[in-house]
Amino acid sequence: MTIFNEVATDYDQWYATKMGRFVDEVETACAFELFMPQPDQKILDVGCGTGNFSIKLAEKGAMVTGIDVSEEMLSIARNKTGALPITYKNMDLYKLEFEDNTFDAVFSMAAFEFVEFPERALGELFRVLKPGGKLMVGTIHLDSSWGRLYTSEYFQKETVFKHAVFKTLEEMAAYYSETLKQMKECLFLPPDTPEEHISLENELKFSANSRGGFICLLWEKPRV
Questions:
Q1: 116: which residues sit within 8 A by CB, 6+ positions away?
Q2: What band does 42 get if pLDDT is binned at 50, 70 and 90?
Q3: Is pLDDT at 4 greater than 80 in this prediction?
Q4: How many CB atoms lie within 10 A of CB 160?
Q5: With left for phi above 0 and alpha for psi between -120 and 50, is residue 187 left, alpha or beta?
Q6: Residue 158 has pLDDT above 90, yes or no
Q7: CATH topology of domain 2-6+16-31+43-220
Q8: Which 8-state DSSP code applies to residue 95?
């Protein structure tokens, strides 16, 4: 999709900021608390973008296939990957070019914001997942200070988030609820927090009376 090609070159600049590094740290901890990849697992990283989580999964020993709709994003990912065991493919998550029961796990971080039909997408991800395999999805939480930021007038007019379809934790949890095993919120720190107050200590304080700006959900495909 050209909308992602256009932002590809600037995408990683977010992680160079103090807030960007903090967000990445918190979201990574949340995801790996629910699902920790194991050596030699075959993992599909859906909406891999510039390879942020594909690289993290591969560094833990997984054999990763990263897919994305933006060839520009994938080009950047390939240049960052080095000798890690990652294969990148340009692919539509609604029409995965894989056989049934191909992967030990499926992982998707910060991509479902742009998924218009979550149930259909999750069904396709379950199809390529082996029985007993885990499916982990992390996405921005609509019902949070971060959700309100991304749905504000500026972000809806001037940024790629005008193409997003944000969901609440409750909405996501309703999909394939019979196979949902765990869910977790994180990123309680508001997006307008001054740099000097960005810390895990303040993240913990805000968690007492705020909803997390990011949510992670873990499903398990039933064994036959």
A1: 165
A2: very high
A3: no
A4: 16
A5: left
A6: no
A7: Rossmann fold (3.40.50)
A8: S
Question: Which has more confidence, 56 or 160?
Answer: 56
Q: Say which residue the tokens 């001054």 belong to.
A: 194
Tell whether the torsion through CA atoms of 25, 32, 97 and 110 is positive or negative. negative
Note whether 137 and 131 are within 8 A (CB).
Answer: no
149 CB-side CA count, 13 A: 12
Model-wide pTM > 0.90: yes
From the CB of residue 193, how many other CB atoms can be counted at a distance below 10 Å? 17
Distance, CA of 214 to CA of 80 (rounded, Å): 25
pLDDT at 11: 75
**Residue for token pair 């499926």:** 106
Alpha helices in the chain, H assignment, sequence order: 2-11, 18-34, 52-59, 71-81, 118-128, 145-150, 153-158, 169-173, 200-206
